[in-house]
Write a structure and sequence with these properties.
- GO terms for molecular function: beta-N-acetylhexosaminidase activity.
- It holds the Pfam family Glyco_hydro_3.
- Its EC number is 3.2.1.52.
- The chain contains 7 helices and 2 strands.
- By secondary structure, it is mainly alpha-helical.
- The chain is globular and about 35 Å long.
Length: 139
């Protein structure tokens, strides 16, 4: 199913908190092997990689909120899903000072992903802070 989706031009993939022990010892969303080697390398996926929700019990193997956020980003996820409002502040604090990979973002925009203005179009007016304000310096 994933290969067919990639071949059809899928713009995004969401990783699951599922362990496939013959491939990697950690959940797929925390695994560089799954994200960088298999999904991006072998399968040639060039879109956005989302984590699964860090509030799910299955995500707890990476530790606290900050540990989960960093584990997903370090594995290669582009976006970490924080679907529980009570985890948002701690998640944002976890990425303070972390460099934003602007080269990757530019690559996504070049493949047809929305720019920041496009993401803001039609959204809640309170969501107006550019991503660099949340992630510190750009790289």
């Amino acid at each position: 199913v994933i290969v067919a989706g990639i071949e059809a031009g899928a713009d995004a993939v969401m990783m699951a908190h599922v362990v496939y022990p013959q491939v990697a010892p950690e959940p797929a969303g925390y695994s560089q092997r799954w994200i960088e080697q298999i999904l991006r390398g072998q399968m040639g996926f060039r879109g956005v990689v989302f984590s699964d929700d860090i509030g799910m019990a299955a995500s707890f193997s990476a530790g606290g909120v900050a540990g989960r956020v960093h584990a997903h980003l370090d594995a290669g996820c582009d976006v970490v899903l924080v679907c529980h409002p009570e985890l948002v502040a701690e998640s944002l604090q976890a990425v303070q000072g972390r460099n934003l990979n602007t080269a990757a973002l530019i690559g996504l925009i070049g493949r047809g992903a929305l720019g920041w203005d496009g993401l803001l179009a039609g959204t809640d007016a309170s969501f107006t802070t550019p991503p660099s304000a949340h992630f510190g310096t750009t790289a």
